[in-house]
Amino acid sequence: MAGLDVLRRIVSSVFWFAAVCALGATSGKEPAPRFSARTIEGEKFSNESIKGKIVLLEFWTTWCKFCVDEAPFVDKIGHELADKGLVLLAINVGESKKTVKRFLDAHPRNCKIVLMEDTNLAAMYQATVYPIYVVIDREGNIAATQRGAGGEPALRGLIARAGLDSPDSPDDSDSD
Question: Beta 54-60 vs 86-92: how paired, if at all?
């Protein structure tokens, strides 16, 4: 019996030690899944090509009222922060190229548009509600995620969590 008790203590200690090590090794940031994407203009993106940049993924549809309402400031932020290393990829989910092009003719965007057929990102991020915003930091980790519309200050706050503050970010309004 004493041998069994010793074995239980050893096994218990091993599990405890493994749990402590696992918790201690957690960095708090989840690496972004490996992906590939191609814009409707043919530009290619992958984890390797975005290294050192901050990436904003916007999952949207043409029928989503909130996506249409938020597109102007999403594009504005993407353009404003491009020279600071922000890459904005707007991934249309589940619609044909013809539908998206017709929509873009009526509602032009000044960002990189990716169709779901040209990427594996929609499945990776379980894009089922719209819009969805995902921010990937310069090290390739997911810095922030938001499901649903939140407005321009919320989006700027998400991007700031990746280390990229903008002139109109919520934190800057307090410094005046």
Answer: parallel
